[in-house]
UniProtKB/TrEMBL annotation:
InterPro entries with a match to the protein in the record: CMP_dCMP_dom, Cytidine_deaminase-like
Record domain CMP/dCMP-type deaminase: where: 1-118
Name under which the protein is recorded: Nucleoside deaminase
GO MF entries: tRNA-specific adenosine-34 deaminase activity
Lineage: Bacteria, Pseudomonadati, Pseudomonadota, Gammaproteobacteria, Oceanospirillales
Key words, A-Z: Hydrolase
Pfam families: dCMP_cyt_deam_1
The keyword DNA-binding is assigned to this record: no
Length: 153
């Protein structure tokens, strides 16, 4: 089940890559229906706020507000602290992500949040290899953000 939605997030990550952005994609699912999908546009729009997760959350925030803790967010990379904060604020019930972010990952921070603590439902590693390969290609092409590469120490 998770794989079909992560494939949608990967499609979005590929769009980001084609535009020259860090290849991160996201989709949000509620009751088996994709209610939002987005890709990273940070470099394209020169805005550090246009992360895929934040953009997706903003596009369906009314539905999330009415359906607290019922939606699942799928991301191709472990969310940063800004996106994790949005995840908590939007009362999303489950997070599924593909690849770990060895530098700015935020899952440990989410687990410390008093509202999520033991209720936090996180699934990792879904389509990890495909996501990591795309991230590695980006790092090689742009000679940067090496913490995203599976070759990083």
């Amino acid at each position: 089940m998770h794989e079909q939605y992560m494939k949608i997030a990967l499609e979005e990550a590929k769009k980001a890559f084609e535009l020259g952005n860090l290849p991160i994609g996201c989709c949000i699912v509620l009751n088996g229906e994709v209610i939002a999908r987005a890709h990273n546009l940070v470099d394209t729009n020169q805005s550090d706020l246009l992360h895929a997760e934040l953009t997706a959350i903003r596009s369906c925030e009314n539905l999330l507000f009415k359906n607290k803790r019922q939606a699942t967010l799928y991301s191709t990379l472990e969310p940063c602290s800004m996106c994790a904060g949005a995840f908590v604020s939007a009362s999303i019930g489950q997070l599924v992500y593909a690849a770990d972010d060895n530098f700015v990952g935020s899952i440990a921070l989410l687990k410390q949040n008093r509202y999520y603590d033991e209720r936090l439902n996180v699934v990792t590693g879904i389509c990890k290899e495909e996501s990591q390969q795309l991230l590695n290609e980006y790092v090689e092409l742009h000679k940067g953000r090496a913490h995203l590469s599976s070759k990083a120490t």
